[in-house]
Design goal:
The complex is a heterodimer. Chain A is of the alpha/beta class. Chain A is built from 10 helices and 8 strands. Chain A has a single domain (2-254), classed as TIM Barrel (Alpha-Beta Barrel), CATH 3.20.20.140. The radius of gyration of chain A is 17 Å and the shape is globular. Chain B is α/β, with parallel strands linked by helices. Chain B has a single domain (2-270), classed as TIM Barrel. Chain B is globular, with a radius of gyration of 17 Å. The chains are: A alpha/beta, B alpha/beta. The interface between A and B is large, with 38 and 42 residues.
Chain lengths: 257, 275
């Protein structure tokens, strides 16, 4: 069983990705053995009407992936009405949020961002932070994003004990020492989607306990097979593989330690 | 089976010697179903190697190959900033040694005439020529001067696919592999499209969906070659570009092995080596 914690619906702003219609987005991971996928929406990167984005996300998940796609709505804490967007995500029974600090332009110690984290922690919402969707070297020159500065994370996490945080696409953003500190600061998880280097997941496990690693593919931006083959390349112990593929995500979703 | 165009023995592999690192490389290759690998550059990453460093880099690859001639091909690392030393290395490692290709990296843009004698001699020897290329977007911090031009983020000696086009216009009989498909592959593929003697290497970029489909659409499957760029990259992410592509199985076979084999066959035959 595999739970993929890192997929997106809708369209990447800069190109059509092969098979990026919702029906196919569901069918390929399913065919490849995924039982459940946590989905954000690419529309959340640039659209200003996040309430609309989030309700379409919920509707698409329901229509195309009932009992398969789990919607993670987006809130931009720089918007004056972010708490309304947040409340609507809760009303739509989303288990968590997916945030894009690089796209929405805030630092990881911005007071409104920290306030949002506190609120989510208090309400038992999982928070996913997507740290880098695309290699900076391939960005469209007219839409170049400042890389996320991760240094505030350990302090921010330590200050919010009930926060359940997932760092998506963390590789290359958090160097091992900072990653280790951030993981130790609270209930922090990372996914494998952008982990690189030969035997990359095995190397990641030298810094991050297996209980904090989640299977994420960054599909459909990445070929789904990349995540699957990374598991094979690292030749993990069956218990560790099972934890990464599904057990850690299940535990995170139910809120159990 | 799969042949990998683009492997290194740099520090991503544990091991104090080229042999130890090569053994690690083969261990992972076996796990991932890779039959043959092309290896170039030494234990350390050196951007602009002087003649002594070049020789050492190539010696380390020769050492790495020594127990794996049935699994690995060597490409000689050359630096056009040192044309004479590069030609000597070409003779030593390819004409007189077991290597079958040339690796050109980021010391000097490949549109520079300093490359001409290297390309001419490598072509005479039927060596496969591999040129690193990127079209890097300029980082935000770089400021706003001319930042929208293609490759504005490239390092000073770093080639783009456009430089490959200039080079090939001077060497119409040569063949060359355009490394990394230019990184920004939607641009790289189109830039080299009209040069039938140019193939693209899929290695060393994120496994972004669509790269292989677009390369096959524009170039045909015969001009697309799988490579990984390990150990900086994983075999996994790079294999996924082909395994996961929405292209015909026959095209995947060409990309995974047959195209590289076809490029290597003349020099292998010439050297009496089995493809």
């Amino acid at each position: 069983m595999t739970i993929d914690v890192n997929v997106h619906l809708s369209h990447w702003p800069f190109r059509r990705l092969p098979g990026d219609e919702p029906a196919e987005l569901v069918s390929q991971p399913r065919r490849l053995g995924v039982q459940s996928a946590w989905a954000g929406s690419f529309d959340a990167l640039l659209h200003r009407d996040l309430a609309g984005v989030n309700s379409r996300l919920v509707e698409d998940c329901r229509r195309h992936g009932k009992d398969f796609l789990v919607p993670f709505g987006t809130v931009n804490p720089l918007m004056p009405f972010w708490d309304d967007d947040y409340n609507r995500c809760r009303e739509m029974k989303m288990p968590g949020l997916r945030l894009y600090p690089a796209w929405h332009g805030y630092s990881l110690n911005h007071p409104e961002f920290v306030k949002l984290l506190r609120k989510a922690a208090g309400d038992g919402m999982i928070v996913q932070i997507d740290l880098r969707l695309e290699d900076e070297r391939t960005q469209h020159p007219l839409v170049r994003l400042q890389p996320v500065a991760p240094a505030p994370l350990p302090e921010v996490v330590a200050a919010i004990p009930r926060l359940r945080l997932v760092l998506l696409n963390h590789f290359g953003i958090l160097k091992p020492e900072l990653l280790s500190k951030t993981i130790a600061a609270g209930q922090v998880f990372v996914d494998i989607a952008t982990v690189e280097g030969v035997g990359g997941i095995a190397k990641l496990l030298e810094t991050v306990p297996a209980a904090r690693v989640l299977f994420g593919s960054h599909f459909p931006f990445f070929y789904f097979e990349a995540a699957e083959l990374k598991m094979k390349e690292s030749n993990l112990e069956p218990a560790i593989e099972k934890a990464i593929r599904s057990e850690n995500a299940k535990r995170l979703l139910t809120g159990s330690q | 089976m799969i042949w990998d165009l683009h492997c290194h023995i740099t520090s991503g592999f544990p091991g104090r010697t080229p042999e130890e690192r090569m053994a690690q490389l083969i261990r992972f290759a076996d796990r991932m179903g890779i039959e043959r690998v092309c290896v170039y550059m030494g234990m350390k990453t050196i951007v602009d190697p002087n003649p002594k460093e070049l020789r050492q880099q190539n010696d380390e690859v020769l050492q790495a190959l020594s127990h794996w001639h049935d699994r690995a091909f060597g490409f000689v690392y050359l630096n056009p900033n040192y044309p004479e030393a590069s030609l000597k290395e070409l003779e030593r490692c390819v004409r007189d040694g077991p290597m079958v290709g040339v690796k050109l990296w980021v010391a000097c843009r490949c549109n520079d005439p300093k490359l001409d004698p290297i390309i001419d001699r490598a072509t005479e020897l039927q060596a496969v020529i591999f040129q690193h290329t990127w079209f890097k977007t300029a980082p935000v911090a770089q400021g706003n001067d001319n930042w929208t031009r293609l490759g504005a983020g490239n390092a000073p000696g770093e080639s783009s696919p456009q430089d490959v086009v200039e080079l090939m216009k001077r060497h119409p009989k040569a063949s060359i592999i355009c490394g990394h498909t230019g990184g920004n592959w939607e641009l790289g593929v189109r830039v080299v499209r009209d040069l039938p003697n140019v193939a693209v290497d899929l290695a060393g970029s994120d496994p972004t969906r669509g790269i292989t489909e677009l390369a096959v659409r524009e170039l045909g499957p015969e001009r697309v070659i799988y490579g990984s760029d390990i150990p900086g990259r994983s075999f996994a992410s790079q294999l996924a570009k082909v395994h996961g592509a929405d292209i015909a199985e026959a095209a995947k076979k060409l990309i995974f092995k047959e195209n590289l084999k076809r490029w290597l066959t003349p020099i292998l035959k010439d050297k009496g080596m089995k493809p």
